[in-house]
TrEMBL record:
This is Transcriptional regulator. It comes from Sinorhizobium fredii (strain USDA 257). Keywords: DNA-binding, Transcription, Transcription regulation. The lineage of its organism: Bacteria, Pseudomonadati, Pseudomonadota, Alphaproteobacteria, Hyphomicrobiales. InterPro entries: AraC_XylS_family_regulators (IPR050204), Homeodomain-like_sf (IPR009057), HTH_AraC (IPR018060), HTH_AraC-typ_CS (IPR018062), Tscrpt_reg_AraC-type_HTH (IPR020449). One of its GO terms (molecular function) is sequence-specific DNA binding.
Length: 386
């Protein structure tokens, strides 16, 4: 018993020594107060979700409403054996992050088509990443089909025609304007409809998984950093996943991206003409016109880009330039012509945008008259970068 008791006392003394020493060490330094989150009015959530749903509509009206919502992006059709009267419950929640639109989408099976005719009249030539949570998609570009499934990524351009179909699917779509990637033409010029794979793609999926549940809590300070991170990760994924394309497709897409980049860098130059662009990228003017045929012509593309930058300038409360000066920078010598073109493009006048910016109430482009149920996905995309 004595041996057992002595051993116990020895163990207690041995165990107690470090605790006493630790207490002595803690007393030697001032105690730091524990860091607690401090509620701040300027750290409130910055994003307000945009919602679209056909759920509460009569079943017979659901698909036509979805078709109108998607009309500026793609033409949609039901499978041959599914009548519209059966209903079509589709839902989207969009989060506008300046240069990034995150769309959470749930749709039944259908097919979709973005034809060349649509590109001629559309200012939308964004890049986007498709991350499926469930379901399958098959999308064809230049006679090549990209198959996508759960927990996989596809990188695609809205500046080129495509067609495809989807089963019932849940997805997260990341839309980014061309300007965000203007300096990455060397990487992106040869890629479209690309399945992203490998470790970097897995890391991007993990990053999206981390950001998505926090969208309703992100602050204004955090959003630009997230956009930059997504940009950098997408470029890295594309660079590691790209494969050599057919020689003719390499020439077309590479030339197009070089032309886009030259226009972006010289957008407000009075010398930005088809001849100047053709000389800068080393092709004939006829070839340049062929490249931009799907966009309604090179001059139409430049005009739309200038109007979009004018929208961004008018939406910036720190930009005090007169509307006439912004109109001149956009290539319009006559203010009335600028107002007419701007209102046609965005559905609101330059003065309305300037007034809303002064009141710190950003205004999204008005929905087309016939789409009385609210903004369409095309309206959401047109405001990216603003």
């Amino acid at each position: 018993m004595r041996d057992r008791s002595t051993g116990a006392e020895s163990e207690e003394d041995h165990a107690g020594a470090p605790a006493t020493q630790a207490q002595s060490e803690r007393r030697r330094w001032p105690r730091e107060p524990s860091v607690q989150p401090i509620p701040r009015s300027d750290a409130l959530a910055a994003l307000t979700p945009l919602h679209f749903s056909t759920r509460e509509l009569p079943p017979a009206a659901q698909f036509q409403t979805w078709r109108a919502h998607m009309a500026s992006l793609v033409e949609v059709r039901l499978p041959d054996n599914v009548p519209p009267e059966d209903g079509f419950v589709a839902e989207q929640t969009a989060w506008h992050c300046g240069n990034l639109l995150i769309v959470q989408q749930r749709v039944p099976g259908h097919s979709y088509l973005r034809p060349q005719a649509m590109l001629r009249a559309s200012p939308i030539d964004h890049w986007y990443v498709e991350l499926l949570r469930s379901g399958m998609t098959w999308t064809e570009v230049d006679r090549r089909v990209a198959e996508n499934g759960p927990d996989r990524l596809v990188f695609r351009s809205l500046g080129y025609p495509f067609r495809g179909r989807t089963t019932a699917a849940d997805a997260v779509l990341l839309f980014m304007p061309y300007e965000l990637f203007a300096d990455d033409a060397a990487v992106l010029g040869e890629t479209n409809n690309l399945v992203l794979s490998g470790n970097l793609a897995d890391l991007l999926i993990n990053y999206i998984d981390g950001v998505e549940p926090r969208l309703d809590r992100l602050t204004a300070e955090e959003i630009p950093r997230i956009v930059r991170t997504v940009h950098d990760m997408v470029v890295a994924c594309v660079a590691s996943s790209a494969k050599p394309d057919a020689a003719g497709q390499q020439t077309n897409k590479g030339m197009m991206e070089r032309a886009h980049r030259y226009i972006h860098l010289n957008l407000h130059s009075a010398d930005l003409t088809p001849d100047a662009i053709a000389r800068a990228i080393g092709i004939s003017r006829t070839r340049l016109y062929q490249l931009f045929e799907a966009s309604g012509g090179v001059l139409n593309y430049i005009r739309r880009r200038r109007l979009q930058q004018a929208h961004a300038a008018l939406s910036d409360s720190a930009d005090s330039r007169p509307i006439a000066e912004i109109a001149e920078a956009a290539g319009f010598d006559v203010a009335a012509n600028f107002t007419r073109a701007f209102s046609h493009e965005f559905g609101v006048s330059p003065r309305e945008i300037r007034k809303a910016a002064a009141a710190e109430r950003p205004v999204a482009p008005a929905a087309p008259v016939e789409r009385h149920r609210g903004s369409t996905i095309g309206d959401w995309l047109k405001t990216l970068g603003n």
